[in-house]
Amino acid sequence: MKILHVPCLEDNYSYLIIDESTKEAAVVDPVEPEKLINAANEHGLNLKLVLTTHHHWDHAGGNEKIKEMVPGIKVYGGSLDNVKGCTNKVENGDKVSLGADVSILALHTPCHTKGHISYYVTGKEGEDPAVFTGDTLFIAGCGKFFEGTAEQMYQSLCVTLGSLPKPAQVYCGHEYTVKNLQFALTVEPDNVRVQEKLSWAQKQRKAGLPTIPSTIDEEMETNPFMRAELPDVQAKVGCHSPVEALRKIRLMKDNWRG
Question: Which of 168, 169, 157 is nearest to 107 (CA)?
């Protein structure tokens, strides 16, 4: 299994997931289909599937176009999310296979949108799995609660995604990492892992390089929203439960002008 990132629009990421033995590929959130098709042609890939994380235009807006450009391509999207161009609706626990060795598991991760799906992808034995989290989990951040509650985001982040294997590679929908880590330091000023990762992320961006992927393990150490489970973090924001802390941290982030 191989994963290629394709920057789109101002700060979005689309992705190609490649089954290396068959050269079959899936695309995640192809908002600018031409870019994905060019990348696929460069690598000699056969595009089979579109995996849509949620219905917002900057993720699902290229679905109709890619269907025109790649006749027969299947477009997957959450059953509750009214995804543009969707041909195959998925629910939590549904599985899709790609090529010979790639397996895709749909995880319902609602809150940003009510039908948001994260896609957990595994390849051959010994390869690190990956999870495509759209706008639910960002590196050191999470999506705004547009269509859901703090309870749902807690379930999506800390339970559903938090229970994935620690080495799972996290590929999110936007390049927001530097700002997210700067905010994370306002919650935990003494968190050395956040300080180190911010310094690294700033260097990456200065060099024009992406900050993805992260890992579930790194998120547990640096993401204030996933760390809302820790009594220490709850105390820092004056709360007594994970959900309360998550709600408070989101409110702080919404009002932060970093």
Answer: 157
**CB contact at 8 A, 132 and 119:** yes
Residue 136 CB partners (closer than 8 Å, separation 6+): 53, 109, 111, 112, 116, 118, 142, 143, 153, 156, 157, 161
Cα(160)–Cα(110) distance, integer angstroms: 10
pLDDT digits (tens, 9 = 90+) for 189-200: 999 999 999 999
CA distance linking residue 184 with residue 177, whole number of Å: 10
Q: Which pTM was predicted? A: 0.98
Could you tell me how far CA 51 lies from the centroid of its own chain?
12
Catalytic (active-site) positions: 54, 56, 58-59, 112, 135, 174
Which has the closest alpha carbon to 105: 117, 95, 90? 95
Read off the DSSP letter of residue 32.
Answer: S
CA dist 36 and 14 (Å) reads 8
pLDDT band at 22 (very low <50, low <70, confident <90, very high): very high
| Contact call for residues 47 and 37 (beta carbons, < 8 A) | yes
List the alpha helices (DSSP H) in the chain.
Answer: 33-42, 57-60, 63-69, 150-154, 177-187, 192-206, 216-222, 231-236, 242-255
Helices 242-255/177-187 angle, 10° precision: 120
Cβ-proximal residues to 112 (8 Å cutoff; 6+ apart), any chain = 54, 134, 135, 136, 142, 143, 144, 145, 146, 147, 148, 153
Residue 246 burial class via C-beta count within 10 angstroms: exposed 0-12, middle 13-18, buried 19 and up: buried
